[in-house]
Model the fold of this input.
Amino acid sequence: MSVYIGNLSYTVTSDELTQVFNQYGVVKRVQLPMDRETGQARGFAFVEMETDEQEDKAIEELNEAEWMGRELRASKAKPKEATAPVMASGSRPVKSIDRPVGDRSDRPARNWVDRSNGWSDGGSDGGAFQRR
Done:
């Protein structure tokens, strides 16, 4: 597992994070996501340490501690949730469903009347529209 560390200064470096976490044990890896447009840190990081005990100690000591003028947030990192791939148009594909698209057999039939123009779905004749 790893430690999520949030509310970091935007000027922090992975070397600075490594130095801080080395006080609590052996740091295996530091991930410091950078903003694509500005090249600055995004204000959070993930630090992987050698043992869970070292991570727990770092979380205990660093959560709500002030560093570089900011109050840090430290916790166990949660696994990344899978997301649907983004299509070229920028939209996401529709999730698959258990029944064929358009199958509304589990829904009651809908009869409606649009009194504004005098047309209705007659309901009894299979849905053909009729003038009232």
